[in-house]
Amino acid sequence: METKQSLAIAKLRQACCAGLPSRTLMPMVLAQLRDLIPAAVCQFTWSSETGRLTNFWSDTFMPRRTAWIILHHKRYEADAGVSFRELVMFGQPTGNLRAWWQQGFEASATYAAVFEPYGFKWFLDGVVRDAMRPYGCIALIRRREDPDFSAAEEALLARVLPYVAHAMRVAITRPSRFVRAAGRSAMVVCDAQGTVLEWSEQAHQLAVFALVDRIDLDAQVAQDDFSEMHHALREIARELHERIDAMGQGAELPALGRRNGWGEFVFRGYRLKGAHGGPARTAILIEQLVPLEAHLLERVNATELTLRQKEIAMLSARGVPNADIARQLGITPHTLKDYFKAIYARLEINSHQQLVQRLAGDAVVLTP
Q1: Which one of 19, 191, 266, 295 has the fewest beta carbons within 10 angstroms of its own beta carbon?
Q2: Rounded CA gap, 212 and 368, in Å?
Q3: How many helices (H) and strands (E) in the chain?
C-alpha cells in the first residue's frame, strides 16, 4: 500500500527524472521535499566544481536576508564555523550544521541578521554531490516554536540526495515547449521613468528571477535588494511606456520577452490613468512560462493513478513511443497495453489523444 511518505519520495524521484534544467527542476524538488519533511523554508545553493557558491533559490522570498548573506558571507562562514566550500566538498551528506546551536551561534551577528528577525532556529542541510563533483546544498529551516528535525527526517533527506544528484549531472538542453500556468504571474506598477510604485512579494520575486540570472557572491545589492533587477526593470518599463504611447487604436498590447537560466519570462504593459489628473502610470504583468514537461508532471501527480501508471502516462504524454516506454520500464508490450487499459479506465478516457488533453488541460503550448 502506498503511504504518504512513499508517494512523496516517488514524486520527488519522478521530478528528478523529468529531464529538466536544474533551475527549473529545483522549485519542484523542494516542493516535494517540503511534503516529505515539513519546513518553514526550503532552499538550494548551487556549487561550482571547485566549491564556489554560484547561485541560490529559496521557496520563501527574503531579499533582505539574501542581501546580507551576499554582503557579509565571510562573517556568515566565520559564525557558522565552516565555509561553503568545506561544506560541499568535504562535509557529511547531512547534518553538518546541526551543531550551530551548541556552539553559541545564537549570539552571533549572522543569527541576529538572518535568523532572529524571521523567528528561524532549527536547520538541516544535505550536500548534493557524487564521485565527480559537488552540485550544491539543500537547506531546510524551521521556526523557533517548531520541533527540531528528527533523526528519521535526516535519514529521509539522505535517502533523496542521490536522486537530486542524478538530476543535476544529466546534461540538459533548453526546453522547446512551454505553457502559461496559473500562479506564475504578478503585476508591478511603475511611473513613466520606470520607478516601482507598487508590487506584491510575488511580483518582486518574479522580477528578481526574470532579471537577475545569478544570485551569487558577486551579485550587486543595495538597500537590501538587487541593483541589477531595478535597473533592468526601469529599462523595460520605459520601453513598454513608449510602445504604449506609439501604438494605434486596437493594437495588441506591447510585450517584451526575457530568457535566462531561470526560464522564460514575458513582460506585458498596460497604461493606467493617473488619479485626479495625476501622471499616467504603467502596469507591467510579469509572467513566467512553464516547461511543458513540468506542467505535465504536476498534472499527472494530481490524478488518482498508481505510481507506475503515472510514470507511463507521463512518458506517453511527452511523446515517447510505446516501444521505448516498454524498454525503459523493462516490461513487455503486452503488459504495457494492459497498463494503458487501466489508465484509460481510471481516467475515463479512450485514447492517447484524450490522455494528452487530460494532462495538458487548458494550457496553451508555446514555442518562444
Answers
A1: 19
A2: 20
A3: 14, 12
Alpha carbon distance 105, 102 (integer Å): 7
For domain 178-290, give the CATH superfamily.
PAS domain (3.30.450.20)
Phi, psi (rounded to 5 degrees) for 137: -140, 130
In one letter, which amino acid is 268? R
| The domains spanning 4-169 and 303-366 adopt the same CATH topology | no
Low-confidence ranges of the chain (pLDDT < 70): 1-2, 100-102, 171-174, 182, 248-251, 274-278, 362-368
Q: Which residues, including other chains, have CB under 8 Å from residue 8's CB and lie 6 or more apart?
A: 32, 35, 36
Q: In the prediction, which pLDDT does 275 show?
A: 66
CATH of 303-366 among 1.10.443.10, 3.40.50.300, 2.60.120.260, 1.10.10.10:
1.10.10.10
Residue ranges per domain, the chain? 4-169, 178-290, 303-366
- DSSP structural state of residue 284: E
CATH of domain 4-169: 3.30.450.40
Strand order in the sheet with 134-143: 53-58, 41-47, 134-143, 120-129
Residue 197 DSSP one-character state: E
What's the pTM value of the predicted model, to 2 decimals? 0.83
* CA-wise closest residue to 341 among 349, 329, 353, 332: 349
DSSP assignment, residue 368?
-
268 vs 270: CA distance, rounded Å? 7
